[in-house]
Design goal:
mainly beta, seven-stranded mixed sheet, four-stranded antiparallel sheet, 11 strands, 4% helix, 47% strand, globular
Length: 135
């Protein structure tokens, strides 16, 4: 069974840090770009960050640049999101998702490793982990 499982969420005070993990099971993250998304109550889901497999390039939403860092450990089949200097507006359910970096993905055909910078479709999603930042 193909699964993405997020962990590491919780309640933290403004200015604090959390590290989220996205672990894959049933498949390898090789040849997938991985994105982190979040959804706050009453708001649409937004992309937070993405990391490519092909060249390791990363992309961040303007609201988190300089505070969040995405990384991947291919040996552990896991992607991380280090979140520092957290703000109340970072509160939401954080989910990870994957999109393949292969010829079967038309987005990869069009954008290559830079698909992380584009709005693309993601194949598999995790269930999410709650992050709450108190003021």
């Amino acid at each position: 069974q193909l699964q993405l499982v997020e962990s590491g969420g919780g309640l933290v005070q403004s200015g604090g840090s959390l590290r989220l993990s996205c672990a894959a099971s049933g498949f390898t993250l090789d040849y997938y770009a991985i994105g982190w998304f979040r959804q706050a109550p009453g708001k649409e889901r937004e992309g937070v960050s993405c990391i490519s497999y092909s060249d390791g390039s990363t992309n961040y939403a303007d609201s988190v640049k300089g505070r969040f860092t995405i990384s991947r450990d291919n040996a552990k089949n896991t992607v991380y999101l280090q979140m520092n200097s957290l703000k109340p507006e970072d509160t939401g359910v954080y989910s990870c998702a994957v999109t393949p970096e292969s010829g079967r993905n038309p987005y990869y055909t069009d954008y290559g490793p830079q698909l992380c910078s584009e709005t693309v479709e993601y194949d598999y999603w995790g269930q999410g982990t709650q992050v709450t930042v108190s003021s």
